[in-house]
């Protein structure tokens, strides 16, 4: 019995030694993989633009040039004036001259009627966000294909549609900050400390909707049957994981 126990202990110790050696070899092999990125590779990847305009590349683009680019590369999804709701939610609409003065979009206040719905220019607070997104993700079918000056031009046209800049404007890295001062919702972004500070108080207090909660969901809008498959089967256009599931529009609605 004692001999068996000693052999078992020895086997475990030997196994641990082999495992430790294997882990060390694996770690050494992993450390030897790859190489340092070159400055050019880092530069190609490091393209984000911050709200303080750090990272904004030098360049410029006119509203007129932006309109030409928009018609050829953007209008098919967003409409000629950024108003289309056919493919994506509208970019333009819902803002006023008063919003540009105050920096707070009145239409976003609770209870206000928004027609047809919240648009990008109603919500976005920083013009750098628009530049950054257009630069890295647009056009939809050819992201990162626009030159720096073309990005400035497209953004200039978009801002002109919202009356942020005049129709003869030339947007550049030198005057982008001036456009920021006229963004309709520039003062609409809030800073909530609990979400940013490690030792901040939690943002949930367990008081909202803890009694008299609604039990039935009320559907306020839905696509008519004839339009459900207009853009193809939505079940094939959404991610297959997570809470989002596309409705299978290739099949008739289930009988009630």
Q: How would you characterize the overall build of this protein?
A:
The longest helix is centred in the N-terminal third of the chain and has 30 residues, at 2-31. Helices cover 36% and strands 2% of the residues. The model has no long low-confidence stretch (mean pLDDT 82). The chain is mainly α and 256 residues long. It has a two-stranded antiparallel ribbon with strand order 1-2. The relative contact order is 0.11. It is globular and about 60 Å long. The protein contains 8 helices and 2 strands. It has a domain at 60-180: Cytochrome c-like domain (Cytochrome Bc1 Complex, Chain D, domain 2, Orthogonal Bundle).
Provide key terms for this protein.
256 residues; mainly alpha; Cytochrome Bc1 Complex, Chain D, domain 2; two-stranded antiparallel ribbon; 8 helices; 2 strands; globular
Helix content: 25-40%
Reading the helices and strands in chain order gives HHEHHHHHEH
Instruction: State the strand order across the main sheet.
Output: 1-2
- The CATH topology label of the domain at 60-180 is Cytochrome Bc1 Complex, Chain D, domain 2
Count of helix runs: 8
Please report the total strand number as a whole number: 2
CATH architecture of the domain at 60-180: Orthogonal Bundle
